[in-house]
Design goal:
about 700 residues, alpha/beta, 26 helices, seven-stranded parallel β-sheet
Length: about 700
């Protein structure tokens, strides 16, 4: 049984009870998800029609909607079979015609009686220099016209539903809206000058001109904030519940970390030191850690992860690092193995490829505690993988894994701390919407010695020059990537195109210098080619986007992206990040086929302009919208009816602060404002959040 408060019952009944909605229209409204009066309340007008009364059609912006009072003149019945019925009318300055096709003549004579005055409203166009209004939308007496709004709301429609039906039903739904206690913090509401909930709803459904449609209008901003606040309160409750889960303080003494830092040939950046301090402090706390480590390509996340894992080992525990692919897991091991050895810690890798005796030996060493750090793929979830004392689980490239998998790994020990890493810079607003239940550490500095990457745009007509430059670079012993165009239709077509490009480049540059990887190859084959590239046996790697995430070959210093106009900004940025990892000066050539569309031009210019992943991510968000940036299918990104993640990022941050503060002051939501917040959660269909309160 739902615990929904009785005051909300009228908004959660069947929509068929609203004015003008019968079974047929109810079925039509189901498509866009409008099944209850509440859904209709949150379906706001997308436009307005200016119905303000004018003196005359004369001087109006035509073609356009005009509302005027007229004297009704002659009726002119059709002269031929398909000819229209015309009625002559005159406003204060001008005579013009009302035009009707196949009308009911008795009805027309009744609503437009000759010699009387009526207010008419509809679209006026000039036809052969004469003004005419075809099928007026309103024909009203002076008294009736007083009920016509100055600005008539225009609703987003679905097939089989008219504006009139939507408007009438919306008015009825508004009448059902109860008076609710305020859930917004009074200071926030006063500072923003927002109206009360009921007033905001009424104003949003009756906009006073184009300004009333703006997300910044007080009514709409308030309703957007309500959505964001409910969402952030749900995340805050999830965070509180995760923290309530008994934590296990993990207090390292710093000895292993000192040993590694002493062996490093460079100093960590300030951002790395700050992130390590935040993570270690979380691990030492009695509540469970749930933290996101966000760093741009090459910002040094791996070192931060190692320091966190060593803190777990110092406390006598173990740590696990999970990567989305075997290539990435093995790369992490290559990067970490020597450093772990400096600290005297045994680090092993476990993937689906481990079989038989070798696997059994690793599992035994893990269960006994001999292995301090285990790196692997989702093979770490296997039932037979048991740790002696898992304290820290690190998940790399979180967007490849669901929240459930994150929790599964956490369940491999008692009250395991969880750290999630991502190399995809996420705009602040999205990161709050997507990861709002997590605390955040950001690596916003590049380690010393990272070379800037020179990025140039090259027209595909000059492909021969690109190959020539590559030939010279390879002769100097350099290594390069050549990424083939993205083919949306299928990986098979993409692989075929990559094979064709591989053959032409091999013919131009020499047999043994060029290798190929694409998504259709079996893993072992891909790994062998990658190993040859890493070892320098291959100088040019031709690839599809399989190399997008995580491949680390410091000696590779040239990136050619063919068909660059087909890639999204985030992808281009990830691909470019495969070079510039060593001491050599690196370059990236974006090869495009002209002429470029507006969006493609903006993307490529942005790539040429900056290497700042966060700036690139903000631009990407503006160009593509929130769902595409995170990939809605896998992102679990909330769908808001009113709030706009791109345009209202500041509201999301305020909502997060507000929700966390209220929960800190009133963990059970039992105060007057806490009770109002419970009503908001039910109103926004966040019943699960209320259950989290009960669990607590």
């Amino acid at each position: 049984m739902s615990g929904r408060p009785e005051i909300l019952f009228p908004l959660f009944g069947d929509i068929e009870g609203l004015a003008g909605i019968g079974p047929k229209i109810r079925a039509a409204l189901e498509k866009p998800g409008i099944t209850r009066p509440r859904d209709l309340l949150f379906t706001l007008p997308s436009g307005v029609v200016d119905r303000r009364l004018r003196e005359s059609v004369n001087g109006a912006n035509l073609p356009g909607v005009v509302t005027v009072e007229v004297d009704i003149g002659l009726h002119r019945p059709p002269s031929g079979r398909n000819a229209p019925y015309r009625v002559m009318v005159r406003d204060a300055e001008l005579e013009f015609q009302l035009v009707f096709f196949r009308p009911r003549i008795d009805w027309l004579r009744r609503v437009l009686p000759m010699g009387q005055r009526r207010v008419i409203s509809g679209k006026v166009e000039l036809f052969d220099g004469l003004a005419q209004m075809v099928h007026p939308e309103h024909i009203l007496t002076r008294e009736e016209a007083e009920g016509l709004p100055n600005f008539e709301p225009v609703y987003p429609l679905t097939e089989g539903v008219t504006q009139r039906v939507m408007a009438k039903a919306a008015v009825d739904a508004l009448e059902k809206a109860p008076a609710l206690e305020e859930w917004i913090e009074p200071g926030v509401k006063a500072k923003a000058n927002w109206p009360d909930w009921g007033v905001a709803l009424t104003a949003a459904h009756h906009p006073d001109g184009m300004g009333g449609l703006s997300p910044q209008s007080p009514a709409r901003a308030r309703l957007a904030y309500d959505e964001l606040l409910a969402h952030q309160m749900t995340l805050a409750l999830a965070r509180a519940q995760a923290q309530r889960g008994r934590g296990k303080p993990t207090l390292g003494d710093g000895t292993l970390r000192k040993a590694v830092l002493a062996a490093l040939p460079y100093m960590p950046t300030g951002a790395q030191e700050r992130a390590v301090a935040e993570i270690v402090e979380d691990m030492a706390a009695p509540s469970r850690m749930n933290r996101l480590l966000q760093g741009d390509v090459g910002s040094g996340k791996t070192l931060v992860a190692l320091m966190a894992m060593l803190a777990a080992c110092e406390a006598g525990g173990q740590a696990a690092l999970m990567a989305p692919t075997e290539i990435l897991a093995r790369q992490h091991v290559e990067g970490l193995q020597a450093l772990a050895a400096d600290a005297g810690i045994r680090l092993e890798v476990l993937t689906g490829r481990d079989k038989g005796e070798g696997r059994a030996e690793k599992l035994a060493a893990l269960a006994s505690g001999d292995i301090g750090i285990l790196v692997g793929t989702h093979a770490l979830f296997s039932r037979d993988v048991e740790f002696a004392d898992l304290r820290l689980a690190i998940v790399d490239e979180q967007h490849r894994f669901g929240v459930r998998q994150r929790m599964d790994l956490g369940a491999k020990g008692e009250a395991v701390d969880v750290l999630v890493m991502t190399a995809t810079p996420i705009p602040r607003s999205l990161e709050l919407a997507h990861y709002g239940d997590m605390d955040l550490s950001v690596l916003d500095e590049k380690p010393a010695g990272r070379q800037p990457i020179e990025t140039v745009l090259v027209n595909a007509e000059r492909l021969d020059e690109v190959v020539g430059r590559l030939d010279n670079a390879l002769a100097e012993g350099r290594q390069a990537y050549w990424v083939c165009p993205l083919v949306e239709e299928s990986e098979v077509v993409e692989a075929t195109a990559a094979e064709a490009r591989f053959k032409t480049l091999r013919a131009s540059l020499g047999e043994g210098r060029v290798g190929l990887v694409h998504g259709q190859m079996v893993s072992a084959e891909k790994d062998a080619v990658m190993a040859d590239f890493v070892a320098g046996r291959i100088q040019l790697l031709v690839a599809t986007t399989v190399i997008e995430v995580g491949v680390n070959v410091p000696s590779a210093s040239i990136m050619v992206i063919e068909g660059a106009e087909r890639f999204g900004l985030a992808q281009l940025h990830q691909l470019r990040g495969r070079v510039g990892r060593g001491s050599e000066k690196s370059s990236c050539m974006l090869v495009y086929a002209g002429p470029l569309g507006q969006g493609a031009r903006v993307r490529l210019e942005m790539m040429r302009e900056t290497e700042d992943g966060f700036r690139i991510a903000e631009t990407d968000l503006k160009l593509r919208g929130a769902g595409d940036v995170l990939g809605v299918q896998q992102s679990g990104l909330p769908r808001f009816r009113i709030a706009d993640l791109e345009g209202q990022a500041d509201l999301m941050k305020t909502a997060q602060d507000d929700a966390r503060l209220l929960l800190h002051q009133d963990p059970g939501l039992t105060s007057a404002r806490g009770q109002a917040m419970r009503v908001l959660l039910y109103l926004m269909d966040q019943d699960k959040a209320i259950l989290m309160l009960k669990v607590g």
